[in-house]
Write a structure and sequence with these properties.
The chain is an alpha+beta fold. The protein contains two helices and four strands, in the order E-E-E-E-H-H.
């Protein structure tokens, strides 16, 4: 059976636990992206310091300055 787009797991950016949109305890939209959390404490930690938990992907050949 094919899974719908809403069934795929999301990783809680704070603790790394996999949650779905159905099992997430908390949800937050930040800079146009939706983040799902396993607990209120994870959401609070993210809100306090989002840059600590958002991993920006670098393109090949570009070095940070």
């Amino acid at each position: 059976m094919k899974r719908s787009n809403h069934d795929h797991p999301h990783k809680d950016p704070v603790c790394g636990m996999e949650v779905s949109h159905l099992t997430a305890i908390d949800v937050l939209e930040h800079q146009g992206k939706t983040y799902y959390f396993c607990a209120h404490t994870c959401k609070e930690a993210f809100e306090t310091e989002p840059g600590k938990y958002i991993h920006h992907h670098r393109q090949h050949g570009i070095k940070p300055q």
